């Protein structure tokens, strides 16, 4: 690609990012739910279930990393619905007549999703500190945890964008992205896998969310890292590569129809 082509592509991406961010700000209901629901979930687990769950440490310290992953799932799932709306409201037909790079549209939605998730994650962290969360990680540990969460959010947002492309409607996009909300409940987010039935424990221990949660938990509160860091990076990088290729190829195919 020539220098002018690179500049044009970057301009397209910036334009679509600006559009997606403005759309996110206008969709007050979705924004409100993405910010409020994780707070309600954290309050529910800390104040209602926390006293009955033994994790060997203060439950609020144990559960916050899981809530952070749950927060990103809620934020990413809304990306699928926004992309599906673009695919079915005539927006893609209008873009066909313009010299806009195909990947710019999805990139705009993904960046808006990351920004929305960053805001909700920051709110959850502040609220968790008020609820008694007491991390002992240093600056480097926090930066590593934030970097891993960012990588996970980007990968999940690209996957959600791909689901939005193939969805038949906005409602079906919500259904397709449901697993993003459900999978954390089968991980080590809220209880230790050792407490689960023997048939469920392998699912909890060998799914992608558990090593990410355990890595964040290790960085922030000092639990044993073991090999969770390497496994979490492998899962996130693999998911990101798969999701980018899937989403962009599906979008090109749909936009040519």
TrEMBL record:
Main location class: membrane
Bilayer topology term: Multi-pass membrane protein
Transmembrane segments: 31-53, 59-83, 103-130, 142-166, 173-191, 232-251
A Gene Ontology cellular-component term: ATP-binding cassette (ABC) transporter complex
One BP term from GO: response to antibiotic
KW Thylakoid (keyword) present: no
A Pfam family the protein falls into: ABC2_membrane
GO-annotated molecular function: ABC-type transporter activity
Record InterPro entries: ABC2_TM, ABC2_TM_bact-type, ABC_2_transport, Nod_factor_ABC_transporter
Every ABC transmembrane type-2 domain range: 29-254
Subcellular location: Cell membrane; Membrane
Keywords: Antibiotic resistance, Cell membrane, Membrane, Transmembrane, Transmembrane helix, Transport
Protein family according to the UniProt entry: Belongs to the ABC-2 integral membrane protein family.
Cited PANTHER family: NODULATION PROTEIN J
Name by which UniProt lists this protein: Transport permease protein
Organism per entry: Kribbella speibonae
């Amino acid at each position: 690609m020539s220098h002018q082509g690179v500049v044009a592509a970057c301009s397209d991406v910036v334009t679509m990012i600006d559009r997606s961010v403005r759309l996110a700000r206008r969709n007050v209901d979705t924004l409100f739910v993405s910010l409020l629901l994780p707070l309600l979930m954290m309050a529910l687990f800390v104040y209602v279930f926390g006293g009955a769950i033994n994790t060997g440490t203060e439950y609020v310290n144990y559960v916050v990393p899981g809530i952070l992953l749950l927060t990103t799932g809620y934020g990413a799932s809304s990306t699928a619905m926004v992309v599906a709306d673009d695919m079915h409201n005539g927006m893609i037909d209008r873009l066909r007549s313009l010299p806009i790079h195909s990947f710019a549209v999805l990139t705009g939605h993904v960046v808006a999703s990351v920004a929305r998730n960053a805001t909700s994650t920051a709110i959850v962290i502040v609220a968790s500190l008020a609820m008694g969360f007491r991390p002992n990680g240093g600056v480097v540990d926090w930066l590593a945890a934030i970097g891993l969460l960012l990588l996970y959010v980007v990968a999940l947002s690209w996957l959600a964008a791909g689901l939005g492309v193939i969805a038949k409607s906005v409602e079906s996009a919500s259904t397709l992205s449901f697993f993003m909300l459900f999978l954390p409940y089968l991980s080590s987010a809220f209880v230790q896998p050792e407490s689960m039935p023997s048939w469920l424990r392998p699912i909890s221990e060998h799914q992608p969310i558990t090593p990410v949660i355990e890595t964040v938990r290790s960085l922030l509160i000092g639990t044993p890292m073991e090999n969770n860091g390497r496994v979490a990076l492998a899962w996130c990088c693999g998911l990101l590569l798969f999701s980018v290729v899937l989403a962009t190829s599906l979008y090109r195919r749909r936009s040519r129809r």
